[in-house]
TrEMBL record:
Family according to the record: Belongs to the dus family.
Domain DUS-like FMN-binding, residue spans: 66-351
Swiss-Prot/TrEMBL keywords: Flavoprotein, FMN, NADP, Nucleotide-binding, Oxidoreductase, RNA-binding, tRNA processing, tRNA-binding
Protein name stated in the entry: tRNA-dihydrouridine synthase
UniProt-annotated catalytic positions: C153 (proton donor)
Record organism: Truepera radiovictrix (strain DSM 17093 / CIP 108686 / LMG 22925 / RQ-24)
């Protein structure tokens, strides 16, 4: 799927039923005319025990995790997934280099909604000093629970900069990035990998990251060369997890409770990416609870759209939401006809009318 770059035991997470208002991100001031590296502050003090144990504590609560997905894992969607029980949610990936030269678009991507707990911000970059500087800026701005390094994105515009999945070809540099990032912030750091770039070498990479200070590793069960073709190899992920002392979360193709229980029984945490698109209640289903009825799904879509408009401040947010809308349509009778209609909406009012026709009387 274009545009999606996304061993511990994972018991029950309660439904989050409150509706938080959304916090529009504010502009940031860059200290000392910061241009990337020279202004990096000294290493922060050691984190308190609760901060150090964030990943193990959250995994022990039992929910699956929302994956970082470019163009999808924004604040309104994270909010819905947390309400349905995701253990935590990871932001879209943020360019560390852009942050350190004053480009604030990454702040909008990573900004939490008001009251967001357990926020994990994902960064990408290929230079240890730059990633550490960008990570420190994000920590000082938003105080996330943890920071995650993207080492799995297979998109050429990312790998062409020796970032994302391309880091799988250079375990030493990847470890240096994790080490400097871990020293720059007083919260856990983690990394999301693939099995390799064009060959399987995730164990070698994961061991290097563990030695450098990673608190958790997530592994998508495909190589970058595979992108999203074929099936994710969860057995390979489990074999790697057995060799590590830190928690491992697997990722790839999880859509059913049976899969969730199987991988949990293998000692893995479970991350859900594409399976949550148009189906944020999947985190509830993975625990054996039913999907919402269609009238509730209709209301949920409208809530999502209103949250998008509030977050982005314009009706254009409904257009931005079309990727979600196409997937929400799958829950309805005659999904293809509804999908085509939803791809034409550009305002909240138009969305309301289309859904009213799709589910009259609801």
């Amino acid at each position: 799927m274009s545009g999606v770059c996304h061993s511990s035991l994972v018991a029950h997470h309660s439904w989050l039923g409150t509706h938080n208002s959304l916090l529009i991100p504010k502009r940031v001031a860059y200290p000392n005319g910061m241009n990337g590296v020279s202004a990096l502050a000294p290493s922060p003090p050691s984190p308190p025990p609760l901060a150090r144990d964030f990943y193990t504590r959250k995994l022990a609560e039992g929910g699956a995790v929302l994956a970082p997905m470019a163009g999808f894992s924004d604040a309104p969607f994270r909010r819905l997934c947390r309400r349905f029980g995701s253990a935590w949610a990871v932001t879209e990936m943020v360019s560390a280099k852009a942050l350190t030269v004053g480009d604030e678009r990454g702040l909008e991507i990573s900004a939490p909604y008001e009251g967001e707990r357990d926020l994990v911000i994902q960064v990408f970059g290929g230079e240890p000093e730059v990633v550490a500087a960008g990570g420190r800026l994000l920590y000082e701005r938003f105080s996330p629970a943890a920071l995650d390094l993207n080492m799995g994105c297979p998109v050429k515009k990312v790998t062409g900069r020796s970032c994302g999945a391309k880091l799988m070809n250079d375990p030493g540099r990847a470890a240096a990035i994790i080490g400097q990032l871990a020293r720059a912030v007083p919260v856990p750091v983690s990394a999301k990998l693939r099995l390799g770039y064009d060959r399987v070498n995730a164990l070698e990479v994961a061991l290097a990251l563990q030695e450098a200070g990673a608190a958790l590793i997530t592994i998508h069960g495909r190589t970058a060369a595979q992108k999203y073709t074929g099936e994710a190899d969860w057995e390979a992920v489990a074999e790697i997890a057995a060799r590590l002392a830190i928690p491992v979360v697997g990722s790839g193709d999880v859509t059913t409770q049976e899969q969730f229980r199987r991988y949990r029984a293998w000692g893995l945490g479970v991350m859900v990416g594409r399976g949550a698109l148009g189906r944020p209640w999947v985190f509830r289903e993975l625990r054996g609870e039913p999907a919402p009825p269609l009238p509730e799904i209709k209301d949920l879509i409208l809530e999502h759209a209103r949250s998008m408009r509030a977050w982005y401040g314009t009706d254009h947010a409904v257009i931005k939401m079309r990727g979600h809308l196409a997937r929400y349509a799958q829950a309805f009778p005659e999904p293809e006809a509804l999908r085509k209609a939803l791809m034409q909406v550009s305002t909240l009012g138009a969305l309301e009318r289309v859904l009213a026709c799709a589910l009259p009387g609801a």
